[in-house]
Amino acid sequence: MDRRKIRTDLALEARESIQTDAAEMRGVEMDSYEEGTDACITRVRILDSEGARMMGKPVGTYLTLESFKMSQEDEDYHRDVSEIFAEKLEELLPARWNSLLVVGLGNHSVTSDSLGPRVLDNLWITRHLERKGRMISGIVPGVMAQTGMESAEIVKGIVQETRPEAVVVIDALAARSVHRLGTTIQLSDTGIQPGSGVGNHRNKLSRETLGVPVIAVGVPTVVSAAAIVYDTMDALTEVLEGNESTRGLSETIRNMNTQEQYQLIQELLTPRLGSMFVTPKDIDAVVKRLSFTISEGMNMAFHA
Fold first, then answer.
1. CA neighbor of 11 nearest in space, from 188, 178, 179
2. Higher-confidence position of 269 and 168
3. How many Å apart are CA 304 and CA 287, to the nearest integer?
4. Which residues of 132-162 are buried (b: 16+ CB within 10 A; e: fewer)?
5. What is the pLDDT of residues 218-258, one digit of tens each?
6. Rounded to whole angstroms, what are the CA distances from 254 to 83, 186, 240, 241?
Protein backbone atom coordinates (compact mmCIF):
# COMPACT_ATOMS: atom_id res chain seq x y z
CA MET A 1 0.00 0.00 0.00
CA ASP A 2 1.34 3.46 -0.85
CA ARG A 3 0.43 7.11 -0.63
CA ARG A 4 -2.04 6.74 -3.49
CA LYS A 5 -4.11 4.39 -1.31
CA ILE A 6 -4.96 7.25 1.07
CA ARG A 7 -8.49 8.05 -0.01
CA THR A 8 -9.11 11.23 -1.99
CA ASP A 9 -11.64 12.33 -4.59
CA LEU A 10 -9.45 15.18 -5.83
CA ALA A 11 -7.49 14.58 -9.03
CA LEU A 12 -5.03 17.26 -7.93
CA GLU A 13 -4.18 15.30 -4.77
CA ALA A 14 -3.96 12.04 -6.71
CA ARG A 15 -1.35 13.66 -8.99
CA GLU A 16 0.54 15.13 -6.04
CA SER A 17 0.75 11.71 -4.40
CA ILE A 18 2.60 10.20 -7.37
CA GLN A 19 6.30 10.83 -6.90
CA THR A 20 7.05 11.17 -10.61
CA ASP A 21 8.36 14.13 -12.52
CA ALA A 22 5.68 15.70 -14.74
CA ALA A 23 7.85 15.22 -17.82
CA GLU A 24 8.11 11.49 -17.09
CA MET A 25 4.44 10.86 -16.36
CA ARG A 26 2.69 9.64 -19.48
CA GLY A 27 -0.98 10.16 -20.10
CA VAL A 28 -1.44 13.00 -17.59
CA GLU A 29 -1.08 16.76 -18.05
CA MET A 30 -1.31 19.34 -15.27
CA ASP A 31 -1.06 23.12 -15.22
CA SER A 32 -1.88 25.77 -12.62
CA TYR A 33 -2.50 29.50 -12.84
CA GLU A 34 -3.87 32.35 -10.76
CA GLU A 35 -7.42 33.49 -11.35
CA GLY A 36 -8.71 36.69 -9.81
CA THR A 37 -7.61 37.48 -6.26
CA ASP A 38 -6.03 34.73 -4.14
CA ALA A 39 -7.59 31.97 -6.26
CA CYS A 40 -5.65 29.20 -7.97
CA ILE A 41 -6.96 27.05 -10.80
CA THR A 42 -5.35 23.68 -11.48
CA ARG A 43 -6.30 21.72 -14.58
CA VAL A 44 -5.51 18.00 -14.63
CA ARG A 45 -6.10 16.15 -17.90
CA ILE A 46 -6.03 12.36 -17.93
CA LEU A 47 -5.44 11.57 -21.57
CA ASP A 48 -5.45 7.78 -21.91
CA SER A 49 -5.75 4.44 -20.15
CA GLU A 50 -2.16 4.60 -18.89
CA GLY A 51 -2.84 7.93 -17.19
CA ALA A 52 -6.11 6.60 -15.80
CA ARG A 53 -4.32 3.57 -14.36
CA MET A 54 -1.66 5.67 -12.64
CA MET A 55 -4.15 8.20 -11.28
CA GLY A 56 -6.90 5.75 -10.38
CA LYS A 57 -9.44 8.01 -12.10
CA PRO A 58 -11.29 8.03 -15.45
CA VAL A 59 -10.01 9.75 -18.57
CA GLY A 60 -11.16 13.35 -18.67
CA THR A 61 -10.62 16.90 -17.44
CA TYR A 62 -10.53 17.90 -13.77
CA LEU A 63 -10.58 21.58 -12.76
CA THR A 64 -9.77 22.52 -9.17
CA LEU A 65 -10.51 25.97 -7.77
CA GLU A 66 -8.60 26.64 -4.53
CA SER A 67 -8.55 29.60 -2.17
CA PHE A 68 -8.04 29.71 1.57
CA LYS A 69 -10.25 32.81 1.63
CA MET A 70 -13.22 30.56 0.82
CA SER A 71 -13.20 29.64 4.50
CA GLN A 72 -13.97 33.24 5.45
CA GLU A 73 -17.30 35.05 5.76
CA ASP A 74 -16.69 37.52 2.94
CA GLU A 75 -19.71 37.94 0.66
CA ASP A 76 -17.87 40.04 -1.91
CA TYR A 77 -15.08 37.50 -2.24
CA HIS A 78 -17.51 34.59 -2.49
CA ARG A 79 -19.30 36.40 -5.30
CA ASP A 80 -15.95 36.63 -7.08
CA VAL A 81 -15.51 32.87 -6.56
CA SER A 82 -19.03 32.28 -7.93
CA GLU A 83 -18.10 34.18 -11.10
CA ILE A 84 -14.91 32.16 -11.57
CA PHE A 85 -16.81 28.94 -10.89
CA ALA A 86 -19.48 29.90 -13.45
CA GLU A 87 -16.80 30.48 -16.08
CA LYS A 88 -15.16 27.08 -15.43
CA LEU A 89 -18.51 25.30 -15.41
CA GLU A 90 -19.34 26.77 -18.81
CA GLU A 91 -16.06 25.35 -20.15
CA LEU A 92 -17.22 21.81 -19.35
CA LEU A 93 -20.84 22.11 -20.46
CA PRO A 94 -21.84 21.36 -24.07
CA ALA A 95 -21.28 24.31 -26.40
CA ARG A 96 -25.02 24.62 -27.04
CA TRP A 97 -27.74 23.38 -24.76
CA ASN A 98 -31.28 24.26 -23.74
CA SER A 99 -32.25 21.67 -21.13
CA LEU A 100 -30.25 20.66 -18.05
CA LEU A 101 -30.82 18.38 -15.06
CA VAL A 102 -29.07 19.22 -11.77
CA VAL A 103 -28.71 16.41 -9.22
CA GLY A 104 -27.96 17.12 -5.57
CA LEU A 105 -26.44 13.97 -4.10
CA GLY A 106 -26.20 13.41 -0.36
CA ASN A 107 -28.22 13.41 2.82
CA HIS A 108 -29.80 16.67 3.99
CA SER A 109 -29.83 15.33 7.56
CA VAL A 110 -26.05 14.75 7.70
CA THR A 111 -24.26 18.10 7.62
CA SER A 112 -21.02 16.93 6.02
CA ASP A 113 -23.02 15.13 3.31
CA SER A 114 -25.62 17.83 2.67
CA LEU A 115 -23.81 19.94 0.05
CA GLY A 116 -25.80 18.62 -2.93
CA PRO A 117 -29.28 19.10 -1.43
CA ARG A 118 -28.34 22.56 -0.12
CA VAL A 119 -27.16 23.70 -3.56
CA LEU A 120 -30.54 22.69 -4.98
CA ASP A 121 -32.25 24.80 -2.29
CA ASN A 122 -30.88 27.98 -3.89
CA LEU A 123 -30.94 27.00 -7.56
CA TRP A 124 -33.22 28.74 -10.05
CA ILE A 125 -35.46 25.97 -11.40
CA THR A 126 -37.20 27.00 -14.62
CA ARG A 127 -38.39 23.90 -16.47
CA HIS A 128 -41.94 24.25 -15.13
CA LEU A 129 -42.30 27.89 -16.22
CA GLU A 130 -44.16 28.63 -19.41
CA ARG A 131 -41.61 30.93 -21.01
CA LYS A 132 -38.78 30.80 -23.45
CA GLY A 133 -35.24 30.23 -22.24
CA ARG A 134 -33.13 27.48 -20.82
CA MET A 135 -34.96 24.77 -18.92
CA ILE A 136 -33.35 23.83 -15.60
CA SER A 137 -34.76 20.94 -13.59
CA GLY A 138 -33.44 19.54 -10.33
CA ILE A 139 -33.70 16.46 -8.15
CA VAL A 140 -32.42 15.37 -4.73
CA PRO A 141 -32.58 11.56 -4.96
CA GLY A 142 -31.73 11.01 -1.29
CA VAL A 143 -29.76 8.02 -0.06
CA MET A 144 -30.50 4.32 -0.32
CA ALA A 145 -31.49 4.05 3.34
CA GLN A 146 -34.26 6.57 2.66
CA THR A 147 -35.52 5.34 -0.72
CA GLY A 148 -34.36 1.75 -1.11
CA MET A 149 -33.06 2.73 -4.55
CA GLU A 150 -29.67 3.63 -5.99
CA SER A 151 -29.30 7.31 -6.90
CA ALA A 152 -28.22 6.12 -10.35
CA GLU A 153 -31.52 4.25 -10.79
CA ILE A 154 -33.55 7.34 -9.91
CA VAL A 155 -31.52 9.72 -12.06
CA LYS A 156 -31.52 7.34 -15.04
CA GLY A 157 -35.31 7.17 -14.96
CA ILE A 158 -35.59 10.97 -14.84
CA VAL A 159 -33.13 11.38 -17.71
CA GLN A 160 -35.09 8.92 -19.85
CA GLU A 161 -38.35 10.77 -19.11
CA THR A 162 -37.23 14.41 -19.35
CA ARG A 163 -34.37 14.05 -21.85
CA PRO A 164 -31.95 16.78 -20.69
CA GLU A 165 -28.96 17.56 -22.89
CA ALA A 166 -26.57 17.30 -19.94
CA VAL A 167 -26.56 16.48 -16.22
CA VAL A 168 -24.71 18.36 -13.48
CA VAL A 169 -24.15 16.39 -10.28
CA ILE A 170 -23.14 17.98 -6.95
CA ASP A 171 -21.70 15.93 -4.09
CA ALA A 172 -19.53 16.18 -0.99
CA LEU A 173 -16.04 14.73 -1.46
CA ALA A 174 -13.20 13.30 0.61
CA ALA A 175 -9.80 14.99 0.58
CA ARG A 176 -6.38 13.78 1.55
CA SER A 177 -5.30 17.06 3.16
CA VAL A 178 -7.21 18.86 5.92
CA HIS A 179 -6.14 22.16 4.35
CA ARG A 180 -8.43 21.54 1.38
CA LEU A 181 -11.59 21.02 3.44
CA GLY A 182 -13.98 23.85 2.61
CA THR A 183 -11.38 25.71 0.53
CA THR A 184 -11.57 23.70 -2.70
CA ILE A 185 -14.11 23.13 -5.46
CA GLN A 186 -13.52 20.44 -8.10
CA LEU A 187 -15.27 20.23 -11.46
CA SER A 188 -14.88 17.37 -13.92
CA ASP A 189 -16.45 16.05 -17.10
CA THR A 190 -16.09 12.39 -16.07
CA GLY A 191 -19.21 11.96 -13.96
CA ILE A 192 -19.15 10.67 -10.39
CA GLN A 193 -19.52 7.52 -8.32
CA PRO A 194 -21.69 8.43 -5.31
CA GLY A 195 -20.18 7.54 -1.93
CA SER A 196 -16.79 6.54 -3.32
CA GLY A 197 -14.95 9.07 -1.16
CA VAL A 198 -15.89 7.26 2.04
CA GLY A 199 -15.68 3.76 0.60
CA ASN A 200 -19.44 3.44 0.05
CA HIS A 201 -19.40 2.69 -3.67
CA ARG A 202 -22.63 3.07 -5.66
CA ASN A 203 -23.40 2.88 -9.36
CA LYS A 204 -21.67 5.56 -11.36
CA LEU A 205 -23.38 8.57 -12.92
CA SER A 206 -21.62 9.20 -16.23
CA ARG A 207 -22.16 9.58 -19.96
CA GLU A 208 -21.84 5.79 -20.27
CA THR A 209 -24.64 5.10 -17.77
CA LEU A 210 -26.97 8.04 -18.53
CA GLY A 211 -26.35 8.61 -22.24
CA VAL A 212 -25.68 12.36 -21.89
CA PRO A 213 -22.66 14.40 -20.70
CA VAL A 214 -22.32 14.42 -16.90
CA ILE A 215 -20.47 17.25 -15.14
CA ALA A 216 -19.47 16.57 -11.53
CA VAL A 217 -19.05 19.34 -8.95
CA GLY A 218 -17.78 18.67 -5.47
CA VAL A 219 -16.32 20.17 -2.30
CA PRO A 220 -14.22 18.08 0.11
CA THR A 221 -15.86 18.03 3.54
CA VAL A 222 -14.18 15.00 5.15
CA VAL A 223 -10.70 13.50 5.47
CA SER A 224 -9.72 10.04 6.68
CA ALA A 225 -8.15 9.69 10.12
CA ALA A 226 -5.28 7.73 8.57
CA ALA A 227 -4.46 10.66 6.28
CA ILE A 228 -4.32 13.06 9.23
CA VAL A 229 -1.95 10.80 11.12
CA TYR A 230 0.17 10.26 8.02
CA ASP A 231 0.57 14.02 7.61
CA THR A 232 1.77 14.36 11.21
CA MET A 233 4.63 11.88 10.79
CA ASP A 234 7.15 14.56 9.80
CA ALA A 235 6.16 16.76 12.73
CA LEU A 236 6.47 13.78 15.06
CA THR A 237 9.95 12.89 13.86
CA GLU A 238 11.09 16.49 14.32
CA VAL A 239 9.92 16.42 17.95
CA LEU A 240 11.60 13.07 18.55
CA GLU A 241 14.85 14.34 17.06
CA GLY A 242 14.88 17.16 19.59
CA ASN A 243 15.11 14.72 22.48
CA GLU A 244 18.25 12.66 22.85
CA SER A 245 16.38 9.73 24.39
CA THR A 246 14.03 9.42 21.39
CA ARG A 247 16.43 10.31 18.58
CA GLY A 248 16.91 6.69 17.65
CA LEU A 249 13.15 6.22 17.20
CA SER A 250 13.08 9.29 14.96
CA GLU A 251 15.76 7.80 12.73
CA THR A 252 13.84 4.53 12.57
CA ILE A 253 10.71 6.31 11.32
CA ARG A 254 12.64 8.38 8.78
CA ASN A 255 14.28 5.25 7.41
CA MET A 256 10.88 3.67 6.75
CA ASN A 257 9.61 4.06 3.19
CA THR A 258 6.16 5.41 2.33
CA GLN A 259 4.60 1.96 2.24
CA GLU A 260 6.02 0.98 5.62
CA GLN A 261 4.92 4.23 7.28
CA TYR A 262 1.37 3.97 6.00
CA GLN A 263 1.18 0.28 6.90
CA LEU A 264 2.22 1.14 10.45
CA ILE A 265 -0.50 3.79 10.69
CA GLN A 266 -3.12 1.38 9.40
CA GLU A 267 -2.09 -1.30 11.89
CA LEU A 268 -2.31 1.17 14.78
CA LEU A 269 -5.53 2.93 13.80
CA THR A 270 -7.77 0.28 12.24
CA PRO A 271 -8.35 -1.84 15.38
CA ARG A 272 -9.23 1.27 17.38
CA LEU A 273 -10.91 3.61 14.91
CA GLY A 274 -11.87 1.50 11.92
CA SER A 275 -12.47 3.48 8.70
CA MET A 276 -12.99 6.78 10.49
CA PHE A 277 -13.49 10.05 8.62
CA VAL A 278 -13.13 13.46 10.22
CA THR A 279 -14.89 16.73 9.42
CA PRO A 280 -14.24 20.30 10.70
CA LYS A 281 -16.14 21.50 13.77
CA ASP A 282 -17.60 24.38 11.74
CA ILE A 283 -18.76 22.13 8.91
CA ASP A 284 -22.30 23.52 9.15
CA ALA A 285 -21.05 27.03 8.31
CA VAL A 286 -18.70 25.67 5.62
CA VAL A 287 -21.45 23.77 3.80
CA LYS A 288 -23.92 26.63 4.09
CA ARG A 289 -21.41 29.13 2.71
CA LEU A 290 -20.06 27.04 -0.18
CA SER A 291 -23.43 25.61 -1.20
CA PHE A 292 -24.61 29.18 -1.73
CA THR A 293 -21.39 30.08 -3.59
CA ILE A 294 -21.87 27.12 -5.95
CA SER A 295 -25.58 27.73 -6.50
CA GLU A 296 -24.89 31.38 -7.31
CA GLY A 297 -22.23 30.33 -9.80
CA MET A 298 -24.62 27.85 -11.42
CA ASN A 299 -27.35 30.47 -11.68
CA MET A 300 -24.85 32.77 -13.42
CA ALA A 301 -23.76 30.05 -15.84
CA PHE A 302 -27.24 28.74 -16.60
CA HIS A 303 -29.10 32.04 -16.97
CA ALA A 304 -26.49 34.42 -18.39
1. 188
2. 168
3. 25
4. eeebbbbbbbbbeeeeeebbbebbbebbeee
5. 999 998 877 777 667 766 777 777 677 666 766 776 676 65
6. 45, 33, 11, 10
